[in-house]
Design a protein that fits this description.
Length: about 375
């Protein structure tokens, strides 16, 4: 079949919308019509050429939602008409990582997914006979995409697909980082570096977990209004201080934070987030994705004296067994996704979504097919 897709031909080149060929679902695969996709900073990161796993040409996009149109042989858990969220971290109950109960990092198809291919080692996308690669196993910048059955989460049909895309990455990542990874307790103090959609979801998660003090940190003060509306008790712009931000935070919190989160992708901030933690128990969760060759550093004494550095992917959320429940929480009013969505646009305007995110003018742009 044909599908209209935004092609990333090479790093740093605007996406081009083309009608490309899409092979139907093979055994164990699902054809999904994407209704909306939103733009996450990770798509910007990969298009920038900084992603060591970035491969071109490809169809980017990993934060979307849609409707199952067709299933391949052997697919039993979803059927045509089901509403789904594509998962860049699948959940295969037979995967030893999943069976460990210790992680959401299912490895069943990680190798082929990282190579831009379906589990059988081939791509379903092509243009004029030339192979186009998948991205993060999802490729939601195409109106139709093919995914392994283990890479779709069936969600309630009550969830409006006009905005459910943000449940494909930003919201579960930030909220999950608080709940599953850091396990923030009521009364804790929290600081989040980076007030994009992921950082905003950290704030929402921290409020839901009963944090007593939530400090939002960003060099773009236009983000502070929304951060405070979501529950940040104060916001700090590092540019307003001469001292390093970790010193400022340790000072104003009388010793440091119980929990910090890095949601930028800057290795210096990952260090600052660790060093803002309280001696003896403070824990820093790294969410941001840093470019090829970047490394983190700190004095080992920071760890010796009880601070903890950890990281999270998709907020530790198990895509098939836990994400549908998070969608239900949204539907029953436990939280709203509306604050994340600053722009709606059509597929043809997708490069504008990149420009807005890079300029710090959007939280999430939702792209409608
Ligand atoms: P975003 O671009 O919307 O937000 C990033 C924010 O960081 C912006 O508000 C920006 O002003 C701020 N910022 C930039 N430099 C800063 C600095 N020096 N000090 C303080 N603030 C600074 O991005 P997003 O979509 O919210 O994603 C945030 C990060 O999380 C990215 O690195 C993204 O790739 C990553 N991410 C990781 C996961 C995961 O599973 N680990 C999931 C989603 C996104
Ligand atoms: N490919 C990059 C790393 C990119 C990365 O860390 N991706 C996150 C999700 S970001 C979503 O917006 C992730 O889930 N990682 C786990 C995994 O297995 O990819 C690199 O550095 O190579
Ligand atoms: Zn993302």
């Amino acid at each position: 079949m044909k599908t209209r897709a935004a092609i990333a031909w090479e790093p740093n080149r605007p996406l081009e919308i083309e009608e490309i060929d899409l092979e139907g679902p093979k055994d164990g695969e699902v054809l999904v019509r994407i209704v909306t996709t939103s733009l996450c900073h990770t798509d910007v990161f990969t298009l920038s050429g900084e992603d060591p796993e970035g491969l071109f040409p490809c169809v980017l996009g990993h934060e979307g939602c849609g409707v199952v149109e067709e299933v391949g042989r052997g697919v039993t858990s979803v059927k045509p008409g089901d509403h789904v969220i594509p998962l860049y971290i699948p959940e295969d109950p037979d995967c030893p990582y999943i069976q460990s109960g210790k992680t959401n990092l299912c490895q069943t198809i990680r190798k082929t997914q990282g190579a831009g291919l379906m589990p059988d080692g081939t791509s379903r996308f092509s243009y004029k006979g030339k192979q186009i690669l998948h991205y993060m196993g999802t490729s939601t910048f195409s109106e139709y995409t093919v995914l392994p059955e283990i890479s779709v989460a069936k969600i309630s049909k009550e969830a409006p697909l006009s905005k459910a895309s943000v449940m494909g990455c930003a919201v579960p990542t930030g909220m999950g980082a608080v709940r599953n990874t850091a396990k923030v307790e009521p009364g804790s103090t929290v600081a989040v570096f980076g007030l994009g959609a992921v950082g905003m979801a950290v704030i929402q998660g921290a409020v839901m977990n009963g944090a007593s003090r939530i400090i939002g940190i960003d060099i773009n003060p236009s983000k502070f209004l929304l951060a405070k509306a979501l529950g940040a008790t104060e916001c700090v712009n590092p540019k307003d201080y001469d001292a390093p931000i970790q010193e400022v935070l340790v000072e104003i919190t009388n010793g440091g934070l119980d929990y910090t989160f890095e949601a930028v992708g800057n290795v210096d901030l990952m260090r600052a987030a660790l060093e803002s933690c309280h001696k003896g128990w403070g824990e820093c969760t790294v969410i941001g994705v840093a470019g090829a060759g970047q490394e983190i550093a700190t004095r080992p004494f920071q760890l010796v004296t009880g601070r903890v550095w950890r990281g999270t992917a998709f907020g530790g959320v198990l895509g098939r067994s836990e994400l549908p429940g998070m969608v239900d929480e949204w539907l029953q009013g436990d939280f709203s996704v509306d604050p994340y969505i600053t722009h709606h646009m059509n597929h043809g305007q997708i490069n504008t979504a990149f420009d807005l995110l890079k300029a710090g003018e959007s939280i999430r742009s939702v792209i409608h097919f």
